Amino acid sequence: MAVTTEKVDVPAVSTPKHAGGNKRPNKYRSALPQYVAISPFFILFAIFGAFPVFFSIWLSFHSWDGIGAMKWVGLEQYNYLLGDPKFWTAISNTLVIWVLSTVPMLLLALVIANALHNATRFRSFYRIAYFIPNVTSVVAVTMVFGSIFSNNFGLLNAFLQSIGLSQIEWLSQPWGIKIAIATIVTWRWVGYNAIIFLAGLQAIPSDVYEAAKVDGASPRQTFWRVTVPLLRPVILFTAVTSTIGGLQIFTESQVLLGDTGGPGGAGTTIVSFLYENAFVKNQFGYGAAIGWALFILIVLFSIINWRLIGGDESERLTSRLRRRTRKEQTDAH
Amino acid sequence: MRTDRIRDLVSHVVLMFGVALSIFPFYWMLVMASNTTPDIFTYPPKLLIGSHLFENMGKVLDNIDFFGSMLVTVIASLGVTVLVLFFDSLAAFAFAKYEFPGRNWLFGLLLATFMIPAQLALVPQFVTLAEFGWIGSLKALIIPGAANAFGIFWMRQYARGAIPDELIAAAKVDGASFFRQYLTVGLPVLRPGLAFLGIFTFINVWNDYLWPLIVMTDPNKLPLQVALQQLNGVYGTDYSMVMAGALMSVIPLIGVFIIGGRHFIADIAAGAVKS
């Protein structure tokens, strides 16, 4: 990728030198302003994106504390990573938190989007109220939820006590920790996803619904047979973004539980595992290797999402469905 | 129709319940920040807004350099936002409205960079900045994010539909340079798109945590989120004070959001549905 940037820069840098002697109108030269216009991104990406990516491959074959000499260890970091029980714990923690947050989040978002779609008044009030959690800093939000889930005198435990249930040490137990983190994630992202679903709902043409009505479909049938299939592309978008976001959870865990992920590391996510090894223990080579493991996981899960919810296939399906409902509509008339 | 009215009512009940859950943590933050810690740590806890808000805020100012941290965050957020708006809109204008050799190929490359997760190269990014001597300096927060693929992609989609070709052709006839065409034809038309990208960028930089945590190591120049977490780590038992700090850190941002929020939400949703 660094090569590409050079290609952009070559005309940008070298043409002015030839400017006097060059009489032929050069298509690269006449596009010089455009190349200059797009160059900042490519230059910054080369320095802070592409170069570090390649450097991290190199780094992951070394043992390095960031200060002393780099020591070549070959595939040793990866070998150690695959045998590191903490790595597997971090993966399973991340996946559990991801499921605990994504499933309720997308379902609630769908319900809210539907209600928003039906409601005619106060729409902009609702949108702002639902979106505010998403723009509030995760650090501040996590502190509030930390106090709500607090073992002693937390609001949730006070509530449990008031209805006669026994208290739960949320932030000491493996499941309690994961539920607390998943709650924060869900709270932050339900509104965002609802707004996106709403836009998807509004993009569904009303003739499709009329066709369903003519066919005598119940509201439930309409929802599952018409709305959900037509929303597939939007659902895919939200599923992919929540997967990528879910695999990168860090702040909630770090603010709630500190660098080590709480008792037994039950709140350690992949990124907090990376952070701890690279920036707390200064194991840069190991940190680079963990970064690649994360990358592979993200690619893997994106492919799974794509297969499950379907890319092209779902588009074909929805257009077929739409054609069919249209046809039924004309038949009915 | 009656069923429609019932459906409307049910929708509003569901929505108001959701709004209550959405807003409650903010209310609880205010309750904690305005009571004393012993008041909260009793059973039953106080559930109403108390009278100790300014006292708790004062304690925050005594314990951390709150306004210094806020200044760091404001400079970083504004700096990145201004640079992103300029670089992204300029690049988007070129990609959207001009033919040049390699255009589609370069744009494809730009889209491909989306695939790289931010954490993949966290360690070498840190090492690179350390080589530059930027660790602990505002440059580390501002320069690497000064142009981004998302903004260019988004602005290009916007510019393609919004800027009429005739206006550019007319500017060319008048002998305007590319940059002058950008200033006189592009920028005025792109203003609504810039408003969205500006708020989006500002909020993201303001709230970013992992990157500042790693690169802003100078204790005299901690950004707001990092300072807040330090307050939490050191004085975690004084909930009221920590919550007062949290409250002070979110108020400016919520202000920005409410001022620019309505269009912002519509734009975010439109972007997702189109892509």
From TrEMBL, chain A:
Its main location: membrane. The keyword Hydrolase does not apply. It is a multi-pass membrane protein. GO terms for biological process: transmembrane transport. GO terms for cellular component: plasma membrane. InterPro entries: ABC_transporter_permease (IPR051393), MetI-like (IPR000515), MetI-like_sf (IPR035906). Residues 1-25 are annotated as: Disordered. PANTHER family: ABC TRANSPORTER PERMEASE PROTEIN (PTHR30193), INNER MEMBRANE ABC TRANSPORTER PERMEASE PROTEIN YCJO (PTHR30193:SF37). Belongs to the binding-protein-dependent transport system permease family. This is Cellobiose transport system permease protein. It comes from Kribbella caucasensis. The lineage of its organism: Bacteria, Bacillati, Actinomycetota, Actinomycetes, Propionibacteriales.
TrEMBL record, chain B:
It comes from the Bacteria. Residues 70-260 form the ABC transmembrane type-1 domain. Keywords: Cell membrane, Membrane, Transmembrane, Transmembrane helix, Transport. Pfam families: BPD_transp_1. One of its GO terms (cellular component) is plasma membrane. One of its GO terms (biological process) is transmembrane transport. The chain crosses the membrane at residues 9-30, 66-93, 105-126, 132-154, 182-206, 239-259. It is found in: Cell membrane. Gene3D superfamilies: MetI-like. It is a multi-pass membrane protein. PROSITE patterns: ABC_TM1. PANTHER family: ABC TRANSPORTER PERMEASE PROTEIN MG189-RELATED, ABC TRANSPORTER PERMEASE PROTEIN MG189-RELATED-RELATED. Belongs to the binding-protein-dependent transport system permease family. This is Cellobiose transport system permease protein.
